[in-house]
Specification:
alpha/beta, Rossmann fold, 5-stranded parallel β-sheet, 4-stranded parallel β-sheet, 12 helices, 9 strands, about 10% strand, disordered C terminus, Peripla_BP_I, GUC2F cyclase, transmembrane helix
């Protein structure tokens, strides 16, 4: 199984330990006789290029390395990946790709993030949405795809903006939100500040400066929809040591995956013991 992602160009994703996580997953798989069915599973980590055109071109080499592919993470590469996987008759397992790509070989391991967001927004009757993305290709393309899917579900996405780690960029994006009519929700397509995301930190702090975290707007992190963000009895120093950010975070609604069978910390400790990961590794860095 090839595990495809931009491990070499995104510092936070690189700290996700894809090699360790892959080995942990196949070790569990190989211990389950009902799942192995006489096969022995193995995983290989494949690098996805940072830029979208290069990521699409790099998919061609994946056929040589794997019988199935987990990825890509960039939704803009999904169309090409789906067609190639169908031509190779290989499963493509991706939470970033919609149902149109891949014909019969695409497997969606999680509920589509756009569908989850739509359910939450419909429940609270929040219609008008703004999407603010980090400037890297991965997040820009994610923001575009999310806006397209929400619009297809009938929700008006009136703002689609980018914001880097400079205060001026964050303010420019937030001013667009302020000028838009009736925006209730800002979806942040960028790394969570709880995991070290610089762009989200700057964006939320600037929102606090502009008085946008007073309850008039709800800020939703997109990335937490795709993994189980630890939230039970987990201290986050980034909030404890930053009063402005802690105040701003009162306006953040986090929707994430529950993991009742085995907690995030349990899995991390198992991986550390099995694969000699440094014992002082901070769970917030994974």
């Amino acid at each position: 199984v090839g595990v495809l992602g931009p491990w070499g160009c995104d510092p936070l994703l690189a700290r996700a330990l894809p090699d360790v996580a892959s080995r942990l997953a196949v070790a569990r798989l190989n211990r389950d006789a009902e799942l192995t069915a006489g096969y022995w599973w193995d995983a290989v980590v494949l690098a996805e290029a940072c830029g979208t055109p290069q990521a699409v071109a790099g998919l061609l080499s994946a056929e040589r390395y794997a019988s199935a592919i987990v990825g890509p993470l960039n939704p803009a590469a999904c169309g090409a990946a789906g067609l190639l996987a169908a031509a190779w008759n290989k499963p493509l397992v991706s939470w970033a790709c919609g149902g149109a790509a891949g014909a019969g070989t695409l497997v969606n391991p999680l509920p589509a993030p756009a569908a989850v967001l739509h359910a939450v927004l419909r429940y609270f009757r929040w219609a008008h949405v703004a999407v603010v993305a980090a400037p890297q290709d991965l997040w820009v393309d994610t923001g575009r795809e999310l806006a397209r899917e929400l619009r297809a579900r009938g929700l008006p996405v009136t703002v689609l903006a980018t914001a880097g780690d400079e205060e001026e960029e964050a303010e420019k994006a937030l001013r667009k939100v302020q000028r838009a009519d009736g925006v209730r929700v800002v979806v942040m397509c960028m790394h969570s500040v709880l995991l070290g995301g610089r762009e989200q930190k700057v964006l939320l702090e600037k929102a606090e400066d502009l008085g946008m975290t007073d309850g008039s707007l709800v800020f939703i992190p997109y990335d937490a929809l795709t993994f189980a963000l630890p939230y039970r009895r987990v201290p986050y120093p980034v909030l404890a040591n930053n009063t402005k950010l802690r105040l701003a975070y009162d306006a953040v609604l986090t929707v994430t995956i529950d993991s009742p069978d085995a907690s995030f910390r349990d899995a991390l400790e198992e991986a550390k013991k099995a694969y000699e990961v440094p014992a002082n590794l901070d769970p917030a860095e994974v």
